[in-house]
Design goal:
With 115 residues, the protein is mainly alpha-helical. It has a domain of 39 residues. Helix content is 63%, strand content 0%. The chain is built from four helices and no strands. It is elongated, with a radius of gyration of 33 Å.
């Protein structure tokens, strides 16, 4: 980060020293033509980068995925599906942590001695 900042400062310093302030850019035909070409290309690239059919929505991505995968049409229904998934996931986790089958516990006092 520091080297980038230093590099930028050096570039600005050199630009300010080496740039002739009396240079008339409007009179130079080649520079004028190059600037016009650049403006045309940059405006075309800008139009390509921003698709016009992309809707800007406030719907969270997870809700959009649930709506897409489940076929639900309304945002509220997709939110309820996600809430149900969270509740089921928490219930299964609690069962596995606290209520699992305790008969699998080995009592080491009942094991035969090793010879």
């Amino acid at each position: 980060m520091l080297s980038t900042v230093t590099h930028r400062n050096i570039e600005r310093f050199l630009y300010n020293i080496l740039m002739n302030e009396n240079m008339e850019l409007d009179e130079n035909i080649e520079i004028k033509k190059a600037l016009e070409e650049f403006e045309v290309k940059s405006s075309a690239e800008q139009e390509q980068k921003t698709p016009s059919d992309k809707k800007t929505s406030d719907v969270p991505k997870m809700v959009e995925l649930v709506m897409k995968w489940s076929g639900v049409k309304e945002e509220r229904q997709a939110e309820y599906i996600l809430l149900g998934f969270v509740v089921i996931t928490i219930a299964v986790s609690l069962y596995l942590f606290f209520g699992g089958n305790s008969s699998n516990i080995i009592n080491y006092t009942d094991l035969p001695p090793i010879n």
